[in-house]
Write a structure and sequence with these properties.
This protein is an alpha/beta fold. It contains 34 helices and 25 strands. The chain binds ligand 26Q. It catalyses: [(1->4)-alpha-D-glucosyl](n) + phosphate = [(1->4)-alpha-D-glucosyl](n-1) + alpha-D-glucose 1-phosphate.
């Protein structure tokens, strides 16, 4: 499209004038951002059309990744890099006096997710396209993504997020591809050719309009599609209150639900879920049938992946289509359906497993409910066949029981593959949480350890580090991230380690500047940047971190000779709006920050920073600057974690428990290059099963623990009136469910060791290098290749050629 920067400049200036009717000197950064975005999107269209044509005419199996969340972040820089025009564009803009960093700030994060599950979906899309694999996303175009967080006097305040306020350059509305989704109404039965048939009548229709976003592969011609659905009112129908209909319809895709583990059981959320799957299946089947494919062979040509249980209604929805619209019999429909779907589980927290009350489900989705009922009955019959008389087992495994639909059970019964997201997580699923299902369907269970796209999290987010790496080992790692292992050859190379040091310092200075601007706090780039950024949740134990900071403060107060390497503790976290305990933890972090940051007793050695409105773009600023990555969940609770991988790839050292993917990070980095502490998953599960943990004992027998716990309520903390009693009670009265006090001493000891190790600069840099070198395994390219080969059975262009 443009061969050099001058070419680009010409296109850019002409387009800017055409779009805004202004001259370049009159234009704002926003005008410039949208001009550039439009040019790039059009440029992408050529390969987008080409990819779609190729998929239409080739016999390639297609994968659809259904997810209620896609946490994309910003796309401009990623797209420029993947297209291979980053340098030309940057140089052209520079000539015009435009700083790419500045116009990038005009792009709102597409924050259509809460955390790990949504970001994983975004990383997977990048890897699918970059590996030339035919995999597409299906999601919801929420008008408001995850709320914007402000911290006011230490409290989280939530504002509606507005990513679409100025329009979104990467999406293309496709009104001609809209479909209808039906809710409510009732089911009528009738006879046709002697067969009993059903139809859904008196239903309320909602129009689902797709907005497509191109997913550009890294330096390849593949451009896949992320299709996001928006709910719009259907055209006028007599006898219907159209204003009410409009309100109710628009509500479906208005907000992303915050991950509320204290599930509110909202009808609206169930509506969202069915809306997503019904619209997606319609469009998947339309495209499949337009290629004149045979509905009886669907599973040979299509795999549909369901990201956690949120899209699991796709299973009964496909059954409905095959039975009611294509006239298949139950057995065949079930055979096709259960060979089409694969399911990933992302949690072992039982309170996060979705269950829907029948009284909500049945009226909203009457035909789908009938089908789920039938699936349940047949499933229970097959259980009876294998375990005759074992009522107890059958009750525990049933899809519907005690007036509730168990979504995970439906997902397992209706899928050919069930996977966990890290080795330890899959083992816990097999041996404990889903053991009965594992006994019944051992062949379905498999592990797929998560990954992250190294193109966003290293190449884009940390360009200086990428350059240092490429100078050392060449650029092959960008296509083959395992090649990062080549860095091992430089572990004794002082010059190279010094380069790493410079890059880290540079990133720390940039972050320090940002902290100064946002928080008005001066932090020392020479201090250890110790970072915990992730959603706020009791099991992730931000509390352990903050109590430990309080403990360090006490040490300074009590012993004037105590000293430590200066440390800056950086937090970022959103708490679900209804999760009051999590909000108290934010307040506590703020309160400890106030206590510590300006007290001369700590001699400037400790600073605590809470960076508000944690999101993908902020993570990209923070992670490259981190020295220590806090991955301190109660063992057995974090399915995988993916932040842990991003930090590792950027040379931070992990302080962590043997939980989720930390276990595999330990294997890749080696025990000398990671700081492991605390109970193991087995020990935690043993306590849960057999008891034997009394937090009060740790409180009474450890003076340091007693002191920090008391400080929650004794007035030590500024502005603390009654705020932290609930936290105090959770630790003592409620016997500390997440073993914060149990792991406290072990955590304090490993943190002390980390601080001492940091003082040996060369030694630390070497550990950092070994982490980067081992991080290639955690690229989502590796993960996606495993899904493609073991689950979906799909191949890319390269593989097809052979
Ligand atoms: C469920 C019911 C009702 C309302 C909301 C929800 C809900 C929504 C989102 C439940 C869970 C989620 C999100 C879960 C999530 O992000 N899990 C994380 O997934 C990552 C990717 O696999 C893992 O790395 C993390 O360990 C896991 O916590």
């Amino acid at each position: 499209m443009f061969s050099d920067k001058n070419d680009f400049k010409e296109v850019f200036l002409k387009r800017l004038e055409m779009m805004y009717g202004k001259t370049f000197p009159e234009s704002t950064s926003r005008d410039q951002y949208f001009t550039l975005g439009n040019i790039i999107r059009e440029y992408i269209s050529i390969n987008w059309i080409g990819t779609n044509e190729q998929y239409r005419f080739n016999n390639q199996k297609q994968v659809y990744y259904l997810s209620i969340e896609f946490l994309l972040g910003r796309l401009l820089r990623q797209n420029l890099m993947n297209l291979g025009i980053y340098e030309i564009v940057e140089a052209g803009l520079n000539d015009l006096g435009i700083d790419l960093d500045e116009i990038e700030e005009e792009e709102a994060d597409a924050g259509l997710g809460n955390g790990g599950l949504g970001r994983l979906a975004a990383c997977f899309l990048d890897s699918l396209a970059s590996l030339d694999l035919p995999g597409h996303g299906c999601g919801i175009r929420y008008k408001h993504g995850l709320f914007e967080q402000k911290i006011v006097k230490g409290f989280q305040v939530e504002l509606p997020e507005q990513w679409l306020r100025h329009g979104h350059v990467w999406e293309v509305r496709k009104p001609d591809l809209a479909v209808e989704v039906l809710f409510w109404g009732r089911v009528e039965s009738f006879k046709e050719n002697g067969h009993l048939k059903f139809r859904h009548v008196d239903a309320e229709g909602v129009t689902a309009v797709p907005y497509d976003m191109p997913v550009v592969g890294y330096q390849t011609s593949t451009v896949n599609t992320l299709r996001l659905w928006s709910a719009e009112p259907s055209s006028y129908q007599a006898g219907r209150d159209m204003m009410k209909h409009k309100r109710e319809t628009e509500a479906i895709t208005e907000f992303l639900y915050p991950d509320d583990t204290h599930d509110e059981g909202k009808t609206l959320r169930l509506k969202q879920q069915y809306f997503l799957v019904s619209a997606s299946l319609r469009s998947i089947l339309r495209s499949y049938l337009s290629r004149k494919r045979d509905i009886h062979e669907l599973h040979d040509h299509i795999s549909i992946h369901i990201n956690d249980t949120h899209p699991v209604l796709a299973i009964p929805e496909l059954m409905r289509i095959l039975l009611d619209e294509h006239g298949l019999d139950w057995e065949e429909a079930w055979e096709i359906t259960s060979r089409t779907f694969a399911y990933t589980n992302h949690t072992t927290l039982s309170e996060a497993l979705e269950r829907w009350p029948v009284r909500i489900f049945e009226p909203l989705l009457p035909r789908i409910f009938m089908i789920v009922n039938e699936i349940n009955e047949r499933f229970c019959q097959s259980l009876w066949g294998k375990y005759p008389g074992d009522w107890n087992r059958i009750e525990q495994m049933a899809i519907i029981s005690h007036g509730e639909v168990k979504m995970a059970h439906l997902a397992i019964a209706g899928s050919f593959s069930v996977n966990g997201v890290a080795a330890i997580h899959t083992e816990i699923l097999k041996q404990r949480e889903m053991n009965l299902f594992y006994q019944f369907y051992p062949e379905k269970f498999n592990n797929k350890t998560n990954g992250i796209t190294h193109r966003r999290w290293l190449l884009k987010a940390n360009q200086p580090l990428s350059k240092v790496v490429t100078n050392a080992i060449g650029s092959e790692w960008i296509h083959q991230p395992e090649k990062l292992q080549g860095l091992h050859a430089f572990r004794e190379d002082r010059m190279f380690l010094e380069e790493l040091h410079k890059v880290k310092n540079h990133k720390k200075q940039q972050l320090a500047q940002k902290i100064l601007e946002q928080n008005g706090l001066r932090v020392d780039p020479e201090s250890i940047f110790d970072v915990q950024i992730k959603r706020l949740h009791a099991y992730k134990r931000q509390l352990l971190n903050v109590l430990h900071i309080l403990h360090l403060y006490n040490r300074f107060r009590e012993d004037s000779s105590f000293d430590m390497h200066p440390r800056t503790f950086i937090f970022g976290a959103k708490a679900s709006p209804g999760y009051f305990y999590a909000k108290k933890i934010i307040k506590l972090i703020d309160s400890v920050a106030k206590l510590v940051n300006h007290d001369p007793v700590v001699k400037g050695r400790i600073k605590v920073v809470f960076m508000e409105n944690y999101r993908v773009s902020l993570a990209e600023d923070i992670i490259p600057a981190a020295d220590i990555s806090e991955q301190i969940s109660t063992a057995s609770k974090e399915a995988s974690g993916t932040g842990n991988m991003k930090f590792m790839m950027n040379g931070a050292l992990t302080v962590g428990t043997l939980d989720g993917a930390n276990v595999e990070i330990l294997e890749k980095s080696g025990p000398e290059n990671i700081f492991i502490f605390g109970l193991t998953a087995e020990e935690v599960m043993k306590y849960y099963a057999e008891g034997g943990y009394y937090s009060m004992e740790y409180y009474h027998h450890d003076e340091h623990i007693k002191q920090v716990v008391n400080q929650l309520i004794d007035g030590t903390l500024p502005d603390s009136a009654d705020h932290f009693e609930e936290i105090f009670d959770s630790l003592l009265t409620e016997n500390d469910q997440y073993f914060v006090l149990r792991d406290f001493a072990s955590y304090a000891a490993i943190q002390e060791k980390a601080g001492k190790d940091y003082e040996d600069t060369a030694g630390w840099l070497q550990k950092s290098l070994i982490n980067i070198a081992g991080s290639g395994h955690f690229s989502s390219d590796r993960t996606i290749k495993e899904y493609a080969a073991d689950i979906w059975g799909i191949t890319g262009k390269e593989l097809m050629k052979k």
